[in-house]
Write a structure and sequence with these properties.
74% of the residues lie in helices and 4% in strands. It is mainly alpha-helical and 205 residues long. Helix 1 runs antiparallel to helix 2, helix 1 crosses helix 3 and helix 4 packs antiparallel against helix 6. It is globular.
């Protein structure tokens, strides 16, 4: 992936989409054996890959801007969710209002939890990514800072979003963290492939 405005826009689009979708689907808890995880685990780790890509190719300034943009987008989505819930339904849709409000109303709690966890974890991720990049050459070392960032994010998010809802927060935190670590390891080859050109500008045709 070359260092172009178009590619930065593409990465930002995937980042914002994964971030917003993860907040909407987080209310569903998936159970596979003893593992209990929010459905958002399929989308949210993509945001860390995106910030790592921006950090590697476009630099710390752009990565921090992306983190701030993500926070604003989540706040904006929270306003839109509450607006949708409180708007009066059509007469033929009143029977669906309760389930609609329950679904999106719970999403608002997850958006709030995500905003707090996101700001702490993503800021940590960008800062440590660049400190490691300045001292160590291997890409996998800075890319896998995500493993620590995800622990911070998971602990904060699960605690705020699910306290009083699930019987065992520690099981959910551990379950989600294990899945996120596996995803972080799996996306390392993707990170290598997409950053193979480093900070090179796109060559002219």
């Amino acid at each position: 992936m070359y260092k172009t405005t178009r590619n930065l826009t593409i990465v930002t689009a995937f980042f914002v989409t994964a971030l917003v979708i993860s907040n909407i689907i987080a209310s569903k808890v998936v159970q596979i054996g003893w593992i209990e995880i929010p459905a958002a685990v399929v989308a949210y780790p993509i945001t860390f890959l995106c910030t790592d890509l921006v950090s590697e190719i476009w630099g710390k300034k752009e990565a921090n801007f992306l983190v701030r943009l993500g926070f604003v987008v989540q706040l904006f989505s929270l306003v839109l969710i509450y607006a949708a819930v409180f708007l009066p339904p059509a007469s033929y849709m009143t029977e669906f209002q309760t389930s609609f409000a329950a679904t999106l109303g719970s999403s608002a709690r997850f958006v709030f939890a995500s905003m707090i966890a996101y700001l702490v974890a993503q800021s940590f991720d960008v800062e440590v990514f660049h400190r490691i990049k300045a001292r160590f050459k291997p890409k996998w070392m800075r890319n896998n800072v995500t493993i620590v960032s995800q622990l911070i994010d998971t602990t904060i998010f699960i605690t705020i979003a699910f306290v009083g809802v699930v019987p065992n927060l520690l099981v959910m935190i551990f379950s989600q963290y294990i899945i996120k670590v596996l995803i972080a390891i799996a996306d390392t080859p993707i990170f290598y492939f997409l950053t193979r050109h480093g900070q090179a500008e796109c060559p002219e045709a």
